[in-house]
Specification:
With about 100 residues, the protein is an alpha+beta fold. Helix content is about 60%, strand content about 20%. A three-stranded antiparallel sheet has the order 1-2-3, covered by helices on one side. The longest helix has 26 residues. It is elongated. The N and C termini lie far apart (about 95 Å).
Length: about 100
Amino acid sequence: MNTFPSDIQDIEVQRLRLEKLCQPTPAQKLTTVSGRWLRQAGQWLVKALTEGDQLRIRTQSTQQGTVWHVHDPIGGTDHMFASEEGLRTWLEQRYSL
């Protein structure tokens, strides 16, 4: 008497039960998605409220050297400088008004 096929079926049933137990419920999925969305919305709100009218300055390395990018939210303009000295001159003129 060979019980091998029956054992395989029992193991398969147990595997399916275990997989079902390990999968998140719809409520858990919703909590994960809504939590992620709320966290991102909160980060955006904090950033929007704290940065305000501050200049946003970033650098970019190119084959010719460093390029300085500036976004001015007050004027809604973007500027690009090939040197730190050029950026400093622009900043001094902007804040001396």
